[in-house]
Design a protein that fits this description.
Radius of gyration: 18 Å
Number of helices: 14
Largest sheet: 8 strands, parallel
Strand content: 5-15%
Shape: globular
Structural class: alpha/beta
Order of helices and strands: HHEHEHEHEHHEHEHHHEHHEH
Number of strands: 8
CATH topology: TIM Barrel
CATH superfamily: Aldolase class I
CATH architecture: Alpha-Beta Barrel
Distance between the termini: 27 Å
Number of domains: 1
Bound molecules: iron/sulfur cluster
């Protein structure tokens, strides 16, 4: 039973050496007690790299003219997901830049196809959209919405041109949860100028939102962004944040993100060791994948082989129940921690 009584300290987030080892071991034990040794296996398809936003930390920002922009074709993605997905995949995450055109023309029909032809759980990561489009996506068969709040401070959020405004982002997260979506959010650790108190504040924000899961992504300077010459996030902050999220909410689904491997050698495994319980196999077709550059062009692609090897190396096993099905069985939808405040 989750107790929700932990809240990280700055020294947790900065821990190294033995203290860090103990923090990660506590988090792994919390995951074990809530989820056993099972890790959810989701595949992601990145179906459009058009983006109307201009985030300073992202290579897909609209001012990056070096990218070849693409929208995948429905028949290509349907063929891939219906007939060529790895057997271990129980859920699909459909992801785009902020591209409402792709949502209407591609994502909605693709969800309808997947719902009709498969029992896969369906997540989407599409940015903020009109309310009626959220409803259409849900009616088509998606049930998990990934919407990261990115940064916990409104002024920093605006300075880095993160999508829309922070207030709007938080409002959409609450709106989605109120409309019955399972919402997973997330934030970036180690952005230039971010302090430990700033990082700590992200945990207050995450705790106070109606979430089913939360991620932490390390800041990786992207070559074609205004932050190209900035330093990457301290790896310890990233992995300690994974553990802090796990201890904050043992019941959350917390992903190991592919950027962990850019943050540190064997980073993906370190993320699992620190308490993550969701892995993602990248199924984006080779011919467009190089132009989906949230971080930088030399991406570390998590294939099925790499993902399963990381799970096995950490003595974990792929979950037999899919993520969307797990949430469905765990109804009612997530409640806020007892200490949460509403905005
Ligand atoms: S982080 Fe998202 S919204 Fe911002 S530029 Fe990248 S794809 Fe667009």
């Amino acid at each position: 039973m989750a107790s929700f009584c932990y809240f990280p300290t700055e020294s947790d987030l900065a821990a190294t050496g033995r203290r860090q080892w103990e923090l990660h071991a506590r988090a792994a034990a919390a995951r074990q007690s809530e989820f056993g040794d099972q890790v959810f296996v989701r595949a992601v398809v990145e179906v459009s790299n058009f983006c109307r936003e201009n985030c300073h930390y992202c290579g897909m920002r609209r001012d990056n003219r070096t990218l070849k922009r693409f929208r995948a074709r429905h028949d290509q993605m349907a063929e891939l997901l219906l007939h060529h997905r790895p057997a271990s995949v129980t859920d699909i995450n459909i992801q785009t830049g902020e591209d409402p055109v792709a949502v209407r023309e591609l994502v909605l029909p693709l969800i309808e196809t997947l719902r009709r032809e498969t029992s896969l759980g369906i997540s989407v990561c599409l940015g903020t959209l009109p309310e009626e489009l959220y409803d259409e996506l849900q009616a088509a068969g998606a049930s998990i919405f990934i919407m990261k709040f990115e940064l916990g401070d409104a002024a920093q959020y605006a300075r880095l041109a993160a999508p829309g405004t922070l207030a709007e982002r938080l409002q959409h997260i609450r709106l989605l949860a109120a409309r019955g979506w399972q919402v997973s959010s997330g934030f970036i650790a180690g952005l230039p100028g971010q302090t430990l108190p700033d990082l700590l504040h992200h945990f207050t924000m995450a705790r106070d939102l109606p979430l089913s899961g939360c991620s932490v992504s390390p800041f990786i300077p992207g070559g074609e962004t205004p932050l190209a010459t900035a330093s990457a996030a301290p790896a310890d902050w990233t992995f300690n944040s994974v553990s802090a999220l796990r201890l904050l909410r043992p019941d959350w689904v917390i992903p190991a993100v592919s950027a962990f491997n850019l943050a540190a050698p064997e980073g993906y495994r370190r993320g699992l060791r620190a308490g993550a319980n969701l892995v993602t196999i990248n199924l984006t077709p080779d011919d467009v994948r190089d132009d989906y550059v949230i971080y930088k062009r030399d991406r570390f692609i998590m294939t099925e082989e790499r993902v399963l090897a990381a799970i096995a190396a950490e003595h974990l096993t792929p979950a037999t129940t899919g993520l969307a099905e797990f949430y469905r069985q765990r109804q009612p939808a997530p409640v806020l921690a007892a200490t949460a405040t509403s905005a």
